Amino acid sequence: MSKKIVKKVYKKFKSSFEGEPLMVFAPGRINLIGEHTDYNDGFAFPAAINKGIAVAVAKSNTSSTKIVALDKKETYQFNLSEVKQLENGGWRNYILGVVGEIQKSSIVLGNFNMVFSGNIPGGAGMSSSAALENSVAFALNELFDLQLSKKQMILISQKAEHNYAGVKCGIMDQYASMFGEKGSALLLDCRTVTSKPFKVDFKDYKLILINTNVKHDLSESAYNNRRAACERVSEMLNISALRDASKESLQAIKGDISEDDYQKALYVIQENNRVLSFIEAAEKDDILSLGKLLFQSHEGLRSQYKVSCDELDFLVDYAKEYDGVIGARMMGGGFGGCTINLVHKSVLEEFEQKVSKKYRKKFKKDCSIYKVKLSQGTHLVSL
Ligand code: GLA
């Protein structure tokens, strides 16, 4: 958690509104492996990180609700009886979405004032939107004593994403951001929506994220299309989700589906298996195998699931050729954002310099490199 943003948000709240606010921090997430498996009821291995969103909130006795997006220097005021999705609403839709989805369960909310700020780079595939949704759900739950469980809150956050942001996302981002544990990644079973924490020790290797600093258009419709393709194949297989498919059962219907759908479903089956192999390798401290699985995951995301892009491929290809980098892959939904890399500490500095230089030369723009700590999920904070 970043104390700095918490203080900044508190200060802004005190200078803008009456009363003493309740403070919440909701982290972003990384995902070690298991991409596009969550909405297939599969496995993923995410972790909450030490970057996130801080919120200050208090009840208001005025007749409207006011939100200050500190980083954007924007304020939005709305009436709780008229909550609906906005066209091009940006950050507003995440908040309206959470409020609207809470209201759908017949809960009557009172007016509130809220200030928020964050330090998750936008479009980096580190789930700034899930962090914002969770921070609002958690804050309102505390403020109005709604008695929602964490699981109910993440389902509200997910619905906000579906119905207000228009992305039919799975549950991984909201789950990791809510349930993250310090120092651990979570082996998440997206069917039961339960997880097991694992302390992964990468020994002499460091985990770094490299942000392409691009987010290509159409990523939202492409995401929803991928999900629809998976559902089409599941239907053909007469199963509720690709979690229940095997290479053999898929092979049996190969002639009845497009090659494209076949490859996408095959990717999901393989990626699910990779998550389980990753856990096995981690339990045996077999770091080299972890790296190989990352490269394989990327290859599947690139050539079968088709959610990568030139910038991500360039970073992964460069990592693959680099002595001391044992694994890399794109992370998150795709079409931009970050790669996640396992780099031997002896070459870390040199790799960072070289990859940055090469990237700049190739794309005429800078990439950004982050080191993150696996951290606690959404929680109340005191100053
Ligand atoms: C986005 C979605 C998640 C998940 C990933 C891909 O981050 O929000 O639900 O599907 O993409 O693994």
Structure description:
This protein is an alpha+beta fold and 383 residues long. It has a domain at 3-199 and 375-380: Ribosomal Protein S5, domain 2, CATH 3.30.230. It is built from 11 helices and 13 strands. It has helices at residues 3-16, 91-104, 128-143, 150-165, 172-179, 219-237, 247-252, 259-283, 287-304, 310-321, 348-363, and strands spanning 22-31, 43-44, 46-59, 65-69, 74-78, 112-118, 185-189, 194-198, 205-215, 325-330, 336-344, 368-370, 379-380. A hairpin with a 5-residue loop joins β10 (325-330) and β11 (336-344). The longest helix is centred in the last third of the chain and has 25 residues, at 259-283. The protein binds alpha-D-galactopyranose.
Overall pLDDT confidence:
97
Helix content: 40-55%
Query: DSSP strand (E) fraction?
Result: 15-25%
Structural class call reads alpha+beta
CATH class of the domain at 3-199 and 375-380: Alpha Beta
If helices are DSSP runs of H or I spanning 4 or more residues, what is the number of helices? 11
